[in-house]
Amino acid sequence: MRILLVEDEVKLAHAMKRALELQKYAVDVVNNGKDGLDFAVGEEFSLIILDVMLPQMDGIEICRRIRAAGIHTPVMMLTARGQISDKVTGLDVGADDYMVKPFSFEELFARIRALVRRPAQTTDPILQIKDLTLDPKTFTVKRGERMIELSAKEFSLLEYLLRNKNAVLNKDQIIAHVWNYDSDVLPSTIEVHIKHLRDKIDVAGQDSLINTIRGRGYTIRE
Q1: Does residue 119 surpass a pLDDT of 70?
Q2: Position 121 pLDDT exceeds 60
């Protein structure tokens, strides 16, 4: 899952990026409002985290503009100000959640999981197809009773496929959601990760759970 973090406090942004990457998220960080808006409009993200007080353009205006552009990506606002009026303003322009600094990373992670689940309208955090299960909260993957160890990118790729099961995802979509903007990813990289995933999750004598649709991309189907 790919997150855009727009935060001008460099030390906080760096700490949040490291913490989120340890949670197996791909994270792009920008430090001013103008670049934040450009990224939010020009790239695809699963979640946008916006600081309210930013140079060049504040987070409220960014949120207002991306909603006006028809972008429905979940938005979490961050601010050092705790007044009710600030929260109301952020929510009124289209933000989905609001956190006041300082905050614990544990609460941040929990709120992110809730926001990402919300578009799917599901109360069950476990993603499943047949006897394969993935728990985004505990980062565990099982095939039946067999535990499967995945790298961070393999886990993110499998999670993206499962959240979009039955849809065909092309390589550009996969790169946009699983790797951050600075990553130098070739189409062959996707093929390698898909092969590694198949090697780990498939069962001998059964069809692969991940299907290749020639000329289009990959899908996991019921």
Answers
A1: no
A2: no
Q: What is the CATH number of the domain that holds 115?
A: 3.40.50.2300
Residue 165 is part of a domain; what is its CATH number?
1.10.10.10
Provide the domain limits for residue 210: 127-220
Of all residues in the chain, the percent with pLDDT exceeding 70 is 94
Q: Which of 120, 144, 176 is the last residue of a domain?
A: 120
Q: Is 14 in the same domain as 76?
A: yes
The reply to whether 20 and 90 lie within a common domain is yes
The pLDDT score that the predictor gives to residue 122 is 44
Token readout for 41 is: 């409009």
What's the structural domain count of the chain? 2
The predicted pLDDT at position 118 comes to: 60
